[in-house]
Design goal:
Helices cover 39% and strands 15% of the residues. The chain is of the alpha/beta class. It is an enzyme of class 2 (transferase).
C-alpha cells in the first residue's frame, strides 16, 4: 500500500485515537474476562480494583455468560434472527454473532462501539456464516437515531430485533438520560423486538468502592445503579421469566452451575408488545 492509501490512513487514525496513558473500560473488562487486548495501565488498575473488590472479576465473567444464555434463548426459543449489540467491547470467545449463528446460521448481527481499540479489532467480529451477516458501526450510544439508520444497511427494522446493551449504560451518568437513549432506540424497533440489558449494581459496599476507585483512575467514569434503576429500563416491556435478577440467576444452565453465586450485576430480557 502506498502512503496515500485510504486504508493505511484510516488505520493510522485509529492508532492515534488509542490512549494508553489512562485505563479504558473495554480493555479493563477484556483483562478481567481473560482476553489479551489491554495495556499496563489497564492491568494495574484492574489489579488495584481486584484488591479492593475481588468479586468484580466474577461480575465480568458471569455477565458474559448471561449474554450467551440470552442470545441462545432469543435465537433458539423466540425465533429472533437480528441482533443490534451496542457497546460491543473487545472480541473474546462467544461473541453475540458466534452464539446466535451457532443456533441459527441465518442470524444477522450489527455491532456498535466508538472505542478505537475495538474498531482496530473489528475484523475479528466480522466473521459470519454464509447464510448470515455481521457488520460493525463506529458510532456513539448518544446518537440513537443515527445508529438505527446505519443499522438498516444490515438489518430489516420492519422485523423484530434484539437490542443488546450490556455493561455499557453505566457510562451514562444521568439515569433519566440513559432511559431516554434506551427508549429512543426501542422506539425505532417494531413490535416483537427485545431489549437485553445487564449492568453492575450498587448492591454491596465492595462494588461501590470498586466503582469509586475505577472512576478516580482517570478512565471514563462508570456509575453503578440500584436494581430499581435497572428495572426502569424495561418499563412498558414484557419481561421474560425470571424478570430482573442477578445475572447468575437468569435461566442458569448446567455449565454455569459453578458460577451461580451472588454477584453485583443484574440483567433482564424484555419484549416490546
Amino acid at each position: 500500500m502506498s502512503e496515500h492509501d485510504p486504508q493505511l490512513a484510516a488505520a493510522a487514525d485509529i492508532r492515534a485515537r488509542i490512549d494508553t496513558s489512562k485505563p479504558h473500560s473495554a480493555r479493563f473488562w477484556n483483562y478481567f474476562v481473560g482476553g489479551k487486548d489491554h495495556y499496563e495501565i489497564d492491568r494495574e488498575t484492574g489489579d488495584h480494583i481486584k484488591d479492593i473488590f475481588p468479586g468484580l472479576v466474577d461480575v465480568a465473567r458471569t455477565s458474559r455468560q448471561f449474554l450467551g444464555r440470552a442470545v441462545r434463548h432469543l435465537a433458539g426459543e423466540q425465533g429472533i434472527r437480528q441482533f443490534l449489540d451496542i457497546g460491543t467491547g473487545l472480541p473474546t470467545a462467544d461473541n453475540t454473532h458466534e452464539v446466535a449463528q451457532r443456533v441459527a446460521p441465518d442470524s444477522r448481527i450489527v455491532y456498535v462501539d466508538s472505542d478505537p481499540l475495538v474498531l482496530a479489532h473489528a475484523r475479528a467480529l466480522l466473521t459470519s456464516t454464509p447464510e448470515g451477516r455481521t457488520a460493525y458501526l463506529d458510532a456513539d450510544l448518544y446518537a440513537p437515531e443515527e445508529i438505527l439508520k446505519a443499522a438498516e444497511g444490515t438489518l430489516d427494522l420492519s422485523r423484530p430485533v434484539a437490542l443488546m446493551i450490556l455493561n455499557t449504560l453505566g457510562h451514562v451518568a444521568d439515569h433519566d438520560r440513559a432511559r431516554d437513549l434506551v427508549d429512543r432506540l426501542m422506539a425505532g424497533l417494531p413490535s416483537g423486538s427485545y431489549l437485553v440489558i445487564s449492568d453492575s449494581t450498587s448492591t454491596s459496599a465492595g462494588m461501590i468502592a470498586a466503582s469509586e476507585a475505577y472512576n478516580s483512575s482517570g478512565a471514563v467514569p462508570y456509575y453503578v445503579r440500584s436494581v430499581d434503576e435497572i428495572a426502569a429500563f424495561f418499563d412498558g416491556l414484557e419481561l421474560a421469566e425470571p424478570g430482573v435478577v442477578q445475572v447468575t440467576q437468569w435461566r442458569p444452565e448446567s455449565d454455569d452451575a459453578a458460577d451461580a453465586t451472588a454477584v453485583d450485576a443484574y440483567g433482564a430480557v424484555g419484549r416490546k408488545p
